[in-house]
Amino acid sequence: MDARSLLVIKFVDAPVSSLNIIGELFTCTVALHSLVESMIEQYLHPRTSHYKIGPGKNLQFSVESKWRVLAMMAVVFGSGFSAPFVLVWHQMLKK
Prior knowledge:
Structural class: mainly alpha
Number of strands: 0
Shape: elongated
Helix content: 55-70%
Strand content: under 5%
Distance between the termini: 84 Å
């Protein structure tokens, strides 16, 4: 006998009472109720976020002033591009 047949035999031999059936129905009803409730909450009542929504609002810096963004980008990209040249220049002067 394999595990499936033992499970079927055990299930068939189990005494069936009205309390067991009512308990199972109640469990299924509670699970269905919570599923439907979460679906309604998710699809019909979307949660409002405390984050601002719109272009540029999810960045770590402000994009309100284009000149400030230009200066910040020049500093960030300029320092990253110039770092290898500065390191080589420093090593050459070290002699």
